[in-house]
Amino acid sequence: MDEVAPGVFVATAVPYVTTTTVVAGADGGCLVIDPAVTVAELDAIASWLSARGLRPVAGWSTHPHWDHLLWSRSLGDVPRYATGRAAEVAARELPALVNSVEEAAPGHDLALFARVAPLHGEVIGWRGPSTVVLAHDAHAPGHGAVLLPEVGVLVAGDMCSDIEIPLLDTEPADGDPIGRYRHGLGVLASVPGVRIVVPGHGHPGDAAEFRRRVTADLAYLDAVQAGRNVADERLAAAPQWLLAEHDRQRALGGGEPTSPPSPEQTTG
Ligand SMILES: [Zn+2]
What we know:
This protein has 268 residues and is an alpha/beta fold. The chain has helices at residues 39-51, 84-92, 94-104, 177-189, 207-226, 233-236, 240-252; strands at residues 2-5, 8-12, 19-24, 29-33, 55-60, 80-82, 117-118, 132-136, 143-148, 153-157, 196-199, 205-206. The strands form two sheets. It has a seven-stranded mixed sheet with strand order 1-2-3-4-5-6-7, covered by helices on one side. It has a five-stranded mixed sheet with strand order 8-9-10-11-12. Strand 10, helix 4 (177-189) and strand 11 form a beta-alpha-beta unit. Helix 4 packs antiparallel against helix 5 (207-226). The longest helix is centred in the last third of the chain and has 20 residues, at 207-226. The structure holds zinc ion.
């Protein structure tokens, strides 16, 4: 666990370099955002919280993808929220989400998986620092980043990563996924006073790094939309699944698929 700002802690899981963010509140209560990924990693987070005198009082899921809907009994029986749209998608797509978690991170208590209630309003009500939800439909329907304005931390969900290119939500295919992503990125980019950005996958960055990632993401979207070659350093070390996503996204803008990755580049 790294303390990225006073009272804001980030743990990084091994699979997909997935982050968990913990925000300390009043009287030892804490908000847990996107706890991930394996059963052992969630238990380790719970042990760390307990050793630190922190007790989860609420959970937040940034978006309805399986690796952001996890929970563990060791984190306690507390209300868990997502945006209204995300909660609806999580409920509707539960069977497919369960298949994904069973395949990628087996052993989770499925009675707790993806059980998120819709948040009413834009503020998570709890006894702690202000937590403002920034909702948009880039990357996933009802994606809800969390801004902690007092400390200038933006918990971005699966956006603003140093290791992943923008990953578009391509359903429905005729629904302008690039335009939706641009809009969502614009929502995040227009937030004043971001001192630390925490991506769902990758590493926290400072204000300058946040700007750099937004610029890189916009350049990526521009290139994909125009069907141009994409020069993005995140693709240089990308695993095979990410290169496959990139090819799929290039096709949206009329780009030709790149050559298949060499075996050395793949990590499965
Ligand atoms: Zn995601």
